[in-house]
Structure formats: structure tokens, C-alpha cells
Amino acid sequence: MGKNNMVGSNDAQEQVFDEKSFEDLYRRMYPTLKKYAVYLVKDREEAQLILNDVFISIWKNNLIPANEKAYLFRAVKNASTNYHKKARIKLWHIDGEDETPEITDLKETPAQSFQNKDRNRMLYALIDQMPERRRLIFYLYRIDGLSYKEIAALLDISVRTVEDHLVKGFQFLQQKVLNNKSEFR
Length: 185
Prior knowledge:
The protein is mainly alpha-helical and 185 residues long.
């Protein structure tokens, strides 16, 4: 437990890379990371900009972390969080001579609130249809925010098994949502 496994630490866990290994990383991870970024920011163009920034940062630092997948997903999540923070800061607009702030109401309407609650209820009902172990792992990851490694240690299973359960869980949800598109609009 005494070992420090922080992302960004400059120890033997990182390796210097060349253009070919960077291209390989980009080609392997970009499609999955793009889907994840679109899911987080709900805007395809902004997601592409976020991914470009993440990969440019990796190129500039000239290092590939040992656990590249976890690092990239965390970097995309952090960049998406920053995107949302910037969007909240730009709530007002000074209009030339007028110089009066325009206040934007970010609260959802009662109809939107009801629709979101209804969607969440349907998603939870779908999650409850998963096998018990998969459902538990899914809740630990998505609701409690535990990492793959933390879940694996807690349940005394391998990280790969956690990953497998989550992939199958997301595929199950995706299939159910696609089959019921009209209910999720």
C-alpha cells in the first residue's frame, strides 16, 4: 500500500514513445474515447476538440503512461468536466453599450424534469434486469464511482472480470435503449 500510483508521476511506469507508437495509441483509442467524450459533453464537435487537446497534451509530454487506457479515460473525463465548468462561467454576455448582464436560466422546465426522472426510472429498471453480480459491479462503478481496481479488490475478482461485466452491462443497456428508442427521447 505504500507505493504511490498517482497518474502523472514520473517513475518507471511511463515510457518514452515515438511517432509510430503515438499513432498506434491514437488509432486504437480514439473511436472509444470519442464515444465517451460525446456521452459526457453531449456535443460531437466539442468532444472532438476535447480529444484533440488530450492527445496533443500526450504528444507534448512525450510519455505514455503504463496504464494508458485508464489515463486516457480519466483525461477525457477531466477535460469534459472543465468544459462544463467553462460553459457555466459564460452565463452572461455584455452587449456593447448596454453593459447589462444577460442572465441565463439553467434550470430545467417541469416537463424536462419529469422526462429526465422518467428516463432515469426506466434506466434503473433496465439495470435491475441484469444478473446480480453484473448489476452490483455496474452500480459500484457508475453510481459509487469506484475504479475497476477498487471493485476487483472489494469483490475479490480480477480487473479483467470487472471490465468484462461492465462491457456486457453497457452492451445490454445499449441494446435495450435502441430497442425502445421512443421511450428514451
